[in-house]
Design brief:
alpha/beta, Arc Repressor Mutant, subunit A, 2 domains, two-stranded antiparallel sheet, globular, binds S-adenosylmethionine, binds N-acetyl serotonin
């Protein structure tokens, strides 16, 4: 099988070509999102010509026609061409569900952040690999020693990052909070819980537990202003999990926190959590797990490069997380792969 695959790739490198042209496919989707193509097609509810779309969005007709054709090529839009009339473009169900701004499952904010922040950072990937550090300074002229000072360089950037974080849990939130039965934990704190998207999923799955999001003061303020849904049963608390006290709880959730930091900082944080944790309590890590042999999943290997270019951490395998948890005092480490982007690890004090 492997021989057959490599043989045909040698005859003609289909996969190789598709992969190294991947950035252009990304740019097609990013551009359409930034221009508002999917929002317009959803709103219009009928198929539109390139000229009509161009006029509504204030672009050239020629440019828009090429963009719409490429979106048809990647099967995100549909087109009808009747003899003698202009081609008429319409959205697919996938575009309406995931790419338009307003829908409950929208990934729009995730795509905007990839387009405006991650893409420029990845442009300096060569330097990131040479230097082994993030590229905020070269890319955006920002000091980069304090990772979240760079990520939150302005109110606008902070809100965009929060949009990215929020939209991930549209897809994986329910799976990760139900990977283990957490109903035995009364007081749950989501450390670095950002907009409260995951905490809201927890409150839904465990209505008898109390859920608190703990995050930096500016994040809590913005979360309450822009994201807090009335009566979803989630409380907010400001603090700094490195410099300040961690409140006592039965379960600490760390979703995409450990992967931001060096092993040294993770151990300091996990030990601090261990001290604050009630006996019989635990910690739940939500991360994208590498395979133990590190051969995949490809998306996790790519996330790990993203942590290099944007933060100071990395993606890790289950045994690396287990070792850190054990070194911090936790035991009974259980790993659950969800089959989606993010997985769950539960450990008990
Ligand atoms: N847990 C959320 C999720 O998975 O969607 C957000 C993860 S985000 C990568 C990291 C979060 O940690 C951000 O919300 C950030 O504000 C927060 N954070 C960073 N440093 C922190 C600190 N010292 N104390 C508390 N929160 C912090
Ligand atoms: C972080 C997660 C992310 C810090 C910065 C980040 C993500 C993007 N930038 O903890 C989410 C997943 N990765 C990608 C590439 O989308």
């Amino acid at each position: 099988m492997a021989e057959h695959l490599s043989q045909s790739e040698l005859d003609y490198p289909f996969k190789l070509l598709e992969y190294f042209n991947g950035f252009r496919v990304s740019k097609v989707i990013f551009s359409a999102c930034e221009l508002g193509v999917f929002d317009l097609l959803l709103k219009s509810q009928e198929a539109m010509s390139a000229q009509h779309v161009a006029q509504e969005l204030g672009t050239s007709v020629d440019g828009m026609e090429r963009l719409l054709d490429a979106l048809v090529g990647i099967e995100i839009l549909e087109v009808e061409r009747a003899e003698g009339t202009a081609a008429l473009y319409s959205s697919s169900d996938v575009a309406n569900l995931y790419l338009a701004k307003g829908s409950a499952k929208s990934l729009h904010d995730m795509i905007i952040y990839q387009s405006q922040t991650i893409y420029p950072l990845w442009n300096n990937m060569v330097d990131a690999i040479r230097e082994g550090r993030n590229q905020y300074e070269k890319t955006f002229g920002l000091p980069s020693d304090d990772v979240f000072q760079a990520i939150y360089s302005s109110e606008e950037e902070m809100l965009k990052f929060m949009g990215l974080m929020n939209s991930s849990w549209v897809l994986d939130g329910h799976d990760v909070v139900t990977a283990f039965d957490l109903s035995c934990f009364q007081k749950i704190i989501d450390l670095g819980g950002c907009t409260g998207a995951l905490a809201t999923e927890m409150a839904r799955a465990y209505p008898a537990s109390s859920i608190t999001v703990f995050d930096l003061p500016e994040v809590v303020e913005a979360a309450q202003k822009h994201y807090s849904q009335e009566g979803n049963g989630v409380a907010f608390q400001s603090g700094d999990f490195f410099r300040g006290d961690i409140p006592s709880a039965d379960l600490y959730v760390l979703a995409r926190i450990v992967h931001d930091w060096t092993e040294e900082k993770c151990l300091a944080l996990l030990k601090k959590i261990y001290e604050a944790c009630k006996p019989g309590g635990g910690v739940l890590l939500i991360e994208a797990l590498l395979f133990e042999n590190r051969r995949g999943p490809l998306m996790v290997q790519i996330f790990s490069l993203n942590m290099l270019v944007q933060a100071e951490g990395r993606e890790r395998s289950p045994s690396e997380y287990t070792n850190m948890l054990n070194k911090s005092g936790f035991h009974n480490v259980q790993v659950c792969r969800t089959g989606k982007s993010y997985d769950a690890i539960l450990a008990i004090r």
